[in-house]
Amino acid sequence: MKVAMLDPSLFTGRYDDSLCAALAGQGADVTLLGRPMRATDAIVPHGYAYAPHFFRRSEALRDRLGEGRAFRLTKAAEYALACALGDLTPLLAADVAHIQWLPLAPADRLVLKRLKGRTALVHTVHNADAYHADAGLQGRGYRALLDGMDALIVHGDTTRAALIAQGIDPARIHITPHPPMRLASASAADLAAVPTSTKPRLLFFGTIRPYKGVDLAIDACLSLWRDGHDFDLMLAGKPFMDVAPPLAQVAQAGFADRLLTDFGFLTEGRLDAHMARADIMVFPYRHIDSSGAFLSALHHGKAMVTSDAGMFGQLPDGVAIRAAAGNVPALAAALLPLLQSAAIRQAQGAAARAYGDDMGSWKDMAVATMDIYQTVLAARA
Question: Could you tell me how many helices (H) and strands (E) the chain has, helices first?
Answer without folding.
Answer: 16, 13
